[in-house]
Amino acid sequence: MARVKNCFVIPGTFDEAGFTKSLKELALRFEAAQPAGNFDILDCHDQSLRASAKVLIQTDGSLFLLRGGRAETQRCKVKGKFVQDLPDGSVKAGLAGFPKLRALMSVGAGRAKHRSFAILGDLQKTQVRGTMMLMSSDQGQVTVVTVQHMRGYDRAYKTVCEKLTKLEGGKSKAKPLFDWLFPDATIYKAKPEIRVCKQEPSIEVATDIIRTYLAVARQNEAGVIHDIDTEFLHDYRVSLRRVRSVISLFKGVLSPEQTAALKREFSGLMEPTGRARDLDVYLLEKDSYFNLIPPNLHEGAVAMFVQFERERSQALGRLSRRFRTQSYDNQMKKLTKLFADPTNLQPGPNADRPAYEYARALIWKRYRKACKLARGITPNTPDESVHNLRIDCKKLRYLMEFFAPLFDAKAFKTIIKSLKKLQDNLGLFNDFSVQQEALLNFVKQHTNKQGRADAQLTLSVGGLISVLDQRQLAERDRVIASFKHFDSPDIRHLFRSLFHQKEG
Amino acid sequence: MKIIACYSNKGGVGKTATSVNLARAYAAAGHKVLLCDLDPQGASGFYLRVKPSKKLTDARFFEDVARFTKSIRASDFEGLDVLPANMTFRDFDVFLSRMRNTRSRLKKALISAGSDYEVIILDCPPNFSTLSENIFKAADQIVVPVIPTTLSERSFDQLVGFFDANKLSKKKLTAFFSMVQQRKTLHLETMDAMRKLYRKRFLHSSIPFAADIERMGQNRAPVSEFAPRSAASLAYQKLYNEMENGVVSKR
User: Which residues contact B248 (CB under 8 A, 6 or more apart)?
Assistant: First the structure.
């Protein structure tokens, strides 16, 4: 038997008397209880640990990771923001695969009381050792029992584990620890499921999607304000972009006047977030930039990143001040209210078209447009066409995702996979081009009236631009290759059968 | 890995008490310790509440890696495991050499069972036998408790004589005075004389004659558990310090 600790999550307080009775010839002896302390359940905003059935608990000085019925413990005094910043140990090792960009934050807190215990056999010999942690929140209580196998005492260990499993309530009653302690917690989802029906009027679909993503965007505001990690702003922007794409892609669903007004309003909301996000991306990619150029060109790049960091904190400061203003809050509340009910909106000519039929028409048209553009791209066409293809593919992808529930999941997956590959190449192509432009602008800003700039800086930037340009060229070739795959007879057939063939 | 044998050719000198208390001291200092109870009476197992193993009567025991590792029991103390008594000594030298050999199946079995012992303490039976000869060869250090009385002195002379006759390295012999009663002139005189005669063999630390050590049988635990501040407990700690770190404390 492996000498691993085993861990049990028992609802409520621990029934000491009942447990002792069930052990029969074994005896339970508690050590003196330690004074109660605080606990925090740590996870990132989208609770990826919870989703993978793990629980990370921080108490004064220790981290506990529960997963698959096992507990890892690690002493840890510091409050690590990112998993990669935690000191090495079994908990950190168990957190491998945790998203690198997401910070750990407290998603629930309460009081914890620890007690150690021993299970004694005859001769009062310890045969199993364990610890018990009673966790209490405002909404519930749960006891986490960890037992330790002692060499040569397999039978006692097995008995104790069996009894504890019974106390867990068996498979039917067992719930994750988080659900016992925080039954009412709302769980953030960056991409919530939105139900769509085939006959649903398109204006209702549009309202559902917009309402949902407005709420998602709002759930990210606090994280941006407190600068917890860069993904809050990213998710905020993605949500608003989805809203915008519904407004612009669902043609004729809203009146032309309202469409134009909403387009303006949402680009007004997005605009102040752009610079901060760009800088986030540069800073996250910092190491890879340095890897692109030889060490003797690093000096200028160091200066550039110092500048980026300064600018980023200014941009984020502006943004978080904006998020805290009353006028911003009012604007968001007004929008939320507007999209609470489709009857609040001014319908356009397509408002009542059934979702399925409308979706097929929209997607088919967008698909044909993208293909026409892509087929015309040769090594000689200007970059502009590649950029346009990227935007068309993005629109196609959004449309397909919005209406995904209406179509055959398997066929959709095949198409999306191939589209995603193409989009990845297009995205990189675009990034390389945008980055070159940004670097040139940066040098321009740091050039004096006589047209002189710092030599170290220009050397670094020059080096970076030439590498980025090479990469962009290479990526262009990959775009053409990926499109060939996307444009294969199989995928073409799938598109036609899903979105164009007459229903039999 | 270090093998320490606790041995005396005379009975009742405090071998088992020394084995148990030393093993506890090593474990408390953070070492992974295996205490092997080679004395068929099983006294060190008794002190640690580990029952003798019924399965260990087979002469081929040391050949059978799985059975050996299975019969090891965790004590109540972190880092201290016990191999209970009732074993025969055939192939004992083979067993010890395997324990040292990183590539042996025994070593692998121990590691895979979650322990790779740093210190092995052997609680030996009081006689000259094939087993004791094997122990003399295999151990890195042979700790010999000596009561400062005429009979014990004679036994120690015999032991040294045995080492001479068999061309064994006397450097391994680490003796200390056990069950010392400071108010007995005979004890003081014997200690003086023996320290002069075997200048390099005796440790400075000695263990007093103490009721607390006898109470180990009632408490079934090392002295440091139930009388941590007693003279006996401190004496064992000093003995450990001197053996492990060469530290000799005054007083």
Answer: B204, B205, B242
